[in-house]
Amino acid sequence: MASIKPSVPKGTRDFSPVEMVKRNYIFDTIKSVFRKYGYQQIETPTMENLSTLTGKYGEEGDKLIFKILDSGEYFNSKSLESFFNELDKGLLELQDNTNFEVLDSMYNLISKYNSAETDAEKIAFHDDYEKNYKLIAPKNRLVAFNKLTNNISEKALRYDLTVPFARYVVQHQNEITFPFKRFQVQPVWRADRPQRGRYREFYQCDADVVGSDSLLNEAEFVLIYDEALGKLGLKDFTIKINNRKILSGIAELINKADNIIDLTVAIDKLDKIGLDGVTKELLDRGFTETDIEKIKPVILLQGTNAEKLQSLREALAESTTGLKGCDEIETVFTYLQSCPLQTATLELDITLARGLNYYTGAIFEVKTNEATMGSIGGGGRYDDLTGMFGLKGLTGVGISFGADRIYDVLEELNLFPTTANQTTRVLICNFDKEGETYGLPLLQQLRRQNVNAELYPAGAKIKKQLDYANNKNIPYTVVIGGDEIATGLLTFKDMSSGVQEKLTVAEIVDRMVG
Amino acid sequence: MASIKPSVPKGTRDFSPVEMVKRNYIFDTIKSVFRKYGYQQIETPTMENLSTLTGKYGEEGDKLIFKILDSGEYFNSKSLESFFNELDKGLLELQDNTNFEVLDSMYNLISKYNSAETDAEKIAFHDDYEKNYKLIAPKNRLVAFNKLTNNISEKALRYDLTVPFARYVVQHQNEITFPFKRFQVQPVWRADRPQRGRYREFYQCDADVVGSDSLLNEAEFVLIYDEALGKLGLKDFTIKINNRKILSGIAELINKADNIIDLTVAIDKLDKIGLDGVTKELLDRGFTETDIEKIKPVILLQGTNAEKLQSLREALAESTTGLKGCDEIETVFTYLQSCPLQTATLELDITLARGLNYYTGAIFEVKTNEATMGSIGGGGRYDDLTGMFGLKGLTGVGISFGADRIYDVLEELNLFPTTANQTTRVLICNFDKEGETYGLPLLQQLRRQNVNAELYPAGAKIKKQLDYANNKNIPYTVVIGGDEIATGLLTFKDMSSGVQEKLTVAEIVDRMVG
User: Which residue of B has its CA nearest to A69?
Assistant: First the structure.
């Protein structure tokens, strides 16, 4: 073991002090804006019951849930016995032929074998047994594995923050004041194949309000994006907005309400593959040339948001749902006239679909125009979040910030502040025990004034101490040698400019506090 | 599903908005003090490789590690195949007779059976097989289970922050500037039996420095406890300090250096069971009456810290190690004379042992004297933290804050601040759409001034809006009705006193900012 350098599981990361300062900067900024808008923080456990998570993310999502072994409970002989009983029970229940059913068959065989009267009977049982074995196919093993893991795992790591939030709302519905505006910043885990920019452990940063259908909430989420990303120093970014009801209206326009998914998946690609590409894809997905002619003007909508909205109203004049969508968008725009955006551009983009099955009203997505990067945020309204846990009729709307991507953008644009109060401001260096002792009261005075300060323990070479300051990005050092102690004037150095001055203890404290 | 109220796994907790404000207050206070003393934050992944964690916490600890199923990797047919190959391999390796070895034997049997020439041969194989089966005993199943889970689990949830920190230091040793002062505040997981005050998921809050043997570090940890707990409002708490070398010296005093664990386990109980109890326990553990007579004066040490230290020096005069321990304690005391404690009492307590196997120098423990509560913090020096990962000779010292217990103490003593900037300060209420529209500019002005503010969406009864403010502990409300709009004088209400005033928008902004 000693010779193998330890590592972290693939897809997970350590965060160094330098990275933590930057990550905290992003999270603290976003949190402060959430709070300013009345959102309250909650935290939910890392582990949720498997029954809470399973079936909420589709078949593909379920496969990516990290399950936790019930190790603790099964590691004494009594509970171990119960584990094997469970396992046996699970095996007996299996109808498919599986690796584990072999074990089951074997149990049966043993018992039949024991009661067999003749050698011929014994062989007959065994031939039966082998016949079963040959039916075992790898695909059936999945069933066996699921059965097995369901018996040894009843908890899993949270896959997102939305389902735990829904569970929280239902569980605590009697303690909650609605509308409930909550934010949550915690890691989630997905057993995805790790690749550049995709991790198995990553933070989500969500705000949602449930129990209010006012479109003021939608408008405020636009403001939150504007304020938070503006505060982080982004100068050019676009908040795209759409509405599921407009997409429904477009599908109704060609009498294909049932094909809305196919429609939106295709037009969502307009940016990437252009109109010809979208046309081809729509034809492939069973839409007619006539359909495409009819919706083309809508897809190619031009002009200001107001102009687009006007054109949409005309195009969707016969769809009640479509017009409702236009009304909703317009209400959001009206709210935002009273509270104009500071930095962001707001763009009505009817090709925006995101997780369409999920959203029932507004749909949001945020993109920076200063760096090549996918969306750095998104969200929308959903009408039945808590229905999965039996609480019907609670409408909600929420947004999410893509913290890892925002980190990369700020890094690329050099937007992280150079001075942060999270790091040491001054290092007191010394040559010997006497210097160390002399430095202690200065150290205490600085800390009393809330200046982050360190004293390098006596006994190290001065070069090592200054290297320490440089490596830790400590902006100022104080050196205490024999001369300094004799005169009471300490050497105060600005590490970035290299300028040195002789200052008294009081002057140094003033300098650092001021 | 719909009818069953969802819940969290046992031993885990949701944290409500009110709890989060209090928890953040504790963590932010402690973090700010860590930073003031030059400690830098890191974070490590929730999941560590099983090989990183296993064998570091003793047999009992290992059982409490939550293992994670390799679900993601095994849920496609190819990887599922490889899972079963691994499983088969694991089974073949089993030497004990287990439930799973039956499966293994069966595989062998099948193959032998297939190549058998006569019926007699077939039966012979099968009889062999059954003989094996009869040897299966429940206790052997544990081995099988371990084998099995090692094949389907290669990751586990972090059990503490210390081992991941050691792993971090070794993995990143070339990027780290030593001495490395790091702090870490993250949850850990233990499959303990949940009970009052003991959770399966809880936060640890640690600071450690590695790569410096200066006792200034020990002195600074005492200062950190003093400052952080003082800042949290505790007024009477004791930081106990001891040194492993003093305990070694006491054991040497009676020529029982090898029995140091037995010795310290017994005298550690002095507080609880008194001298008679300790005497009985020492006798039970094989110490003689003579031994006990000899160490009694040391156990019953009285007086100031200086007096105790003097008595110890006399008692341990013949133990080099013991005297070294006294020197170390004295050095810490000397440092602290230059930087006197503000709130805490420092007490030399030679009965303090904690995780003795672990510590090699100073040992710390903190207790509040204002509430009945176990230790709210502890730590010490360890000389070979990173040795477990092959990096020898790095000495370290660290402390931990017991956040959950501190929470309970602050709650009991009513020490949480009533005003926190984490919550909404003012709610703007209205009767209708017109009031809502009128309120929007006020809302924006307040937020521009960094006042956390909300506007209740139009359409709700005023009583509901005021209840919302009360339930969310919002201290001020503004009510906008027809009169208010006509006169420009809005109703501003202090929710705790009930006092109402008529103020202009500008006056309200001033009031909230001032």
Answer: B67
Bridge-based pairing of strands B180-189 and B40-41 is parallel
How much is the average pLDDT of A409-413?
A: 96
Q: Between chains, do A71 and B51 touch, taking CB under 8 Å as contact? A: no
Tell me whether residues A40 and B17 touch, CB distance under 8 A.
yes
Give me the mean pLDDT over the B444-461 stretch. 93
B172 vs A contacts (CB less than 8 Å): 14, 16
* Per-residue pLDDT band at B138 (split at 50, 70, 90): very low
| Contacts B421 to A, Cβ<8 Å | 35
What is the value of ipTM here, to two decimals?
0.86
Chain A closest-CA separation from residue B62 CA (Å): 9
Give the Cα separation of A260 and A265 in Å (integer): 8
DSSP helix/strand/coil, B293: helix
Task: Tell me the H-state helices in A268-303.
Answer: 270-284, 289-299
Q: Are B253 and B265 in contact (CB under 8 A)?
A: no
- Between CA B73 and CA A9 the distance in angstroms is 13
Beta bridge partners of B195: B198
Please report the pLDDT score of residue A71 as a whole number.
59
Q: How far is CA B371 from CA A402, A495, B45, B198, B362, in A?
A: 43, 47, 35, 18, 26
Question: Are B221 and B399 within 8 A, CB to CB?
Answer: yes
CA B181 to chain centre: 18
- The arithmetic mean of pLDDT across residues B287-299, rounded, is 92
Question: How open is the CA angle A449-A454-A455, to the nearest 5 degrees?
Answer: 120
Is A149's CB within 8 Å of B72's CB?
Answer: no
Cβ within 8 Å of A, B 321-350:
335, 338-339
Give me the residue label for tokens 């406890």.
B225
Report the range of poorest mean pLDDT among A52-56, B228-232, B308-312, B413-417.
A52-56
* B327: confidence class by pLDDT, cuts 50, 70, 90: very high
Measure in Å the smallest separation between the Cα of A287 and chain B Cα atoms: 34
Nearest by CB: A145 against B64, B80, B441:
B80
**A419 in B contact zone (CB under 8 Å):** no
Mean of per-residue pLDDT scores for chain A: 86
| Residue among B164, B203, B400, B31 at smallest CA distance from A15 | B164
Contact B180, B169 (CB under 8 A): yes
Residue B357 in this model has a pLDDT that exceeds 90 = no
Helix (H) or strand (E) holding B347, with range, is strand B345-348
Contact yes or no for B24 and A41 at CB 8 A:
yes
* Each residue's pLDDT tens digit, A316-338: 999 999 999 999 999 999 999 98
Q: Which of residues 209-248 of A touch B (CB under 8 A)?
A: 212, 214, 216-217, 227
Residue-wise pLDDT tens digits, A351-370? 998 866 789 999 999 999 99
Half-sphere exposure (Cβ direction) of A475: Cα atoms closer than 13 Å: 11
Question: What is the helix (H) or strand (E) element at residue B438, kind and residue range?
Answer: helix B433-448
Q: Does A430 touch chain B (CB under 8 A)?
A: no
Cβ pairs A/B, distance under 8 A: 348
CB contact under 8 Å between B422 and A35, yes or no, is: yes
Alpha carbon distance, N-terminus to C-terminus of chain A: 52
What confidence tier does B73 reach under pLDDT thresholds 50, 70, 90?
Answer: very low
